[in-house]
Amino acid sequence: MSRKTKGLLSVMIPVIAWGISFVSTEYLLASLGPMTIGAIRFLFATIILYGVMKMTRTPLKIDKKDRFLFVLAGGIGIAIYFYFENNGIKYISASPSSLIIAAIPMFTLIFEAIIFKRVVKWVDMLAILASIIGVILIVDIKLSEFFKAEESVGYLMMLGAVLSWVIYAMASRPLFNKYSYLTIIFYQFLYSLPFFAFVVPFEHNQWHLLGAEGVGHLIFLSVFASTLGFYYYAKSMDLLGVTESSVFINFLPIVTIVFSYFYMGQTVSAKQLVGGIFVMLSVTVTTLYDKKVEKEDEKTANYRGN
Question: In angstroms, rounded to a whole number, what is the distance separating the alpha carbons of residues 88 and 154?
Fold first, then answer.
């Protein structure tokens, strides 16, 4: 199995888990604060990862010089990201908030080109453009909502969330050559906890409203969305690259809509279906192009070998 195939299979796990996590988070916000949800989610995920690392004898030691990257990825890329995203929805409606998903690949591509001197190919821009159009159709955005001055705080929050995720991707990339995926996400989760803990005391939580279903959502967020989701996303970033992996994030609205349909009975419009086609087209284009390049490189290598 090629690195490309392994990367594609890996990235679909976080896409599915994170797509469902939006519904779980929405359910939990009725009783718990946004940062409280994050704190519980990543606390249990950190404990699970520690146990797995002990059982598999994965090294826990990291170089002191790399701690800054772990703090960036965990503190800003995880904790601050969830702070901006969850609180931003308080100021603006869900539709424009969801555009953060479409903005991430574009910002990731720009930062990767600046920081890591990535060569921007025409297929990258085409895929990102198609994915943005797709997400706009999926969330059924109303352009008039962008021009309400009182919602400017919400848009700033969402911009902060986008930049936080880009920082997560950029800070994670140099770590792949030195540490295992388990070590990387363990310390990212660990360093995110103080950021969550700082805000939790100021939130109003109604624990009595949680119930068995709420506990089930917390377990899902801890095990599947956090532990497995971030592990396989780290793996996909290593195998595919940070920009290619970020393009697949645009599948999240599709997963959320499908799960919401079966779990919450929400309907899917024709416009949303068309948007889903655009998103899938964007990923298909970049995947087929990369496969074509790989085959051409193999032919060139075989020719030179002969």
Answer: 5
Render pLDDT for 41-94 as a digit per residue (tens, 0 to 9).
Answer: 999 999 999 999 999 999 889 999 999 999 999 999 999 998 988 777 667 655
Contacts of 86 (CB under 8 A, 6+ apart): 25, 29, 34, 35, 37, 38
Sign of CA dihedral 28, 210, 222, 78: positive
Q: Is the pLDDT of residue 97 over 70?
A: no
- Pick from 287, 14, 296, 294: nearest CA to 126: 287
CB 231 within 8 A of CB 185: yes
pTM of the model: 0.77
pLDDT exceeding 70 applies to what percent of the chain? 76
**Residue of 37, 15, 36, 49 lying closest to 221 (CA atoms):** 37
Residues whose CB is less than 8 angstroms from the CB of residue 267 and which lie 6 or more positions away in sequence, other chains included: 261
Angstrom distance (rounded) from CA 88 to CA 143? 18
The half-sphere exposure of 14 on its side-chain side, counting CA atoms within 13 A, is 22
- Count the neighbouring beta carbons within 10 Å of the beta carbon of residue 53: 16
Within 10 Å of residue 55's Cβ, how many Cβ atoms? 8
Q: What backbone torsions phi and psi does residue 205 show, to the nearest 5 degrees?
A: -110, 135
The CA distance from 65 to 255, in Å, is 39
Rounded to whole angstroms, the Cα distance separating 72 from 43 reads: 18
What is the spatial distance between Cα 4 and Cα 238, in angstroms, rounded to a whole number? 10
pLDDT of 297 over the 70 cut: no
Residue entry with tokens 């990387």? 184
What mean pLDDT is predicted for residues 150-155?
69
* Phi, psi angle pair for 204, to nearest 5°: -100, 110
Cα–Cα distance measured from residue 131 to residue 267, given in angstroms and rounded to the nearest whole number: 22
